[in-house]
Design brief:
The complex is a heterodimer of chains A (193) and B (127). Chain A is mostly helical and 193 residues long. Chain A has 8 helices and no strands. In chain A, α1 runs parallel beside α3 (53-62), α2 packs across α3 and α6 (117-143) packs antiparallel against α7. In chain B, 58% of the residues lie in helices and 11% in strands. In chain B, strands 1-3-2 form a 3-stranded antiparallel β-sheet. Chain B is globular. Classes of the chains: A mainly alpha (193), B mainly alpha (127).
Chain lengths: 193, 127
């Protein structure tokens, strides 16, 4: 039994309403199929040969409405993924703000000598926390079965590639800053004398 | 149990209701695997078949069926594939029992029979 164009549009809107940006397409397709079978029963009971919007509305209520349908067809982890992404981005933003603030203070107050134990320990502790966070996120990702392969690959690639990109950027661009050049010039001068 | 009036407020679940709910939930996996051992099937058909073959006693909700199917798939007991239906209608996701799933079903059936025989003996021998 086929749906009318209006019924198809209603289904699209309903699925769009309860889906998150990362909802696997397969889960939505499975829901669409189940919804259509349920709506077909309503249409059959009403003596119709096509599925209309009221049939779909009745089917939606039969399945329990938005929350029950999300619970049944969309994995619980998935509904929280969007929130987790926001939390991650917020954490990165706070970290970046803290880093910029620390760098500004260090430059303006003359605390930029990275060879002091305080700065060395702070950098080592930050690196250890970052390593643990990346490892934990990777393990969590690999344990999840509700992600599409492309989604999993994108997250893993992002997690693995971001730190090396930062390191490569530093070695490619950061080491040839004016201070480093000045240090090397001083070293050469000291070596000559 | 008497059916409540449609206009009345639903009564809170009793201890018997909760026990029956747990019993149904525990039977869901066995019912799904049994039906898939007979033929590949999709969610809606599984629900309808379970309801019909148990005369409505084991009316599983979508909220129990689909998470159970996805868990069975993640555990490797079933696989899924999409099959075309009539033109203009969406494809259906069919589930297929794997050899691991067959072995799992055998274990579950054995445990079920063992358990029900024990309970039946217990109920039949109150002394």
């Amino acid at each position: 039994m086929k749906p009318t164009p209006a019924a198809t549009a209603w289904t699209d809107a309903a699925l769009h309403r309860i889906a998150t940006p990362t909802t696997p397409r397969a889960r939505l397709d499975e829901l669409r199929s189940h919804l259509q079978d349920t709506a077909a029963q309503h249409a059959h009971a009403a003596g119709r040969t096509t599925i209309t919007t009221p049939d779909l509305e009745a089917a939606w209520q039969t399945l329990g409405g938005d929350t029950a349908i999300q619970h049944a067809f969309l994995p619980p982890d998935h509904r929280h993924l969007h929130r987790a992404t926001k939390a991650t981005l917020a954490t990165w933003a706070i970290g970046a703000l803290a880093g910029i603030t620390a760098a500004t203070i260090a430059i303006t107050k003359g605390l930029g000598n990275a060879t002091t134990p305080f700065w060395f320990l702070a950098a080592a502790a930050t690196a250890a926390i970052a390593t643990l966070l990346v490892a934990a996120a990777l393990l969590h990702l690999l344990r999840r079965h509700d992600l599409a392969p492309s989604e999993r690959l994108a997250w893993v690639a992002g997690l693995i590639l971001l730190p090396p990109i930062g390191a490569i950027a530093y070695f490619a661009l950061g080491r040839d800053g004016t201070r480093d050049l000045a240090h090397r010039a001083l070293n050469r001068e000291a070596a000559d004398t | 149990l008497a059916n409540p009036s449609p206009t009345s407020t639903p009564a809170p679940p009793t201890a018997v209701d909760r026990w029956t709910q747990q019993l149904r939930k525990g039977s869901t996996r066995l019912a799904i695997l049994q039906l898939l051992s007979e033929a590949d099937s999709y969610g809606y058909h599984l629900l309808a078949t379970i309801r019909d073959r148990t005369a409505g006693t084991l009316a599983i909700a979508e909220g129990n069926l689909y998470p159970a199917l996805h868990t069975l798939e993640a555990e490797g007991h079933v696989t899924s594939y999409w099959r075309d239906t009539d033109p203009g209608t969406p494809q259906r996701k069919y589930y297929h029992l794997t050899p691991t799933g067959h072995r799992h079903l055998t274990h579950l059936v054995h445990e079920w029979n063992h358990h029900t025989r024990a309970i039946t003996r217990l109920l039949g021998d109150p002394a």
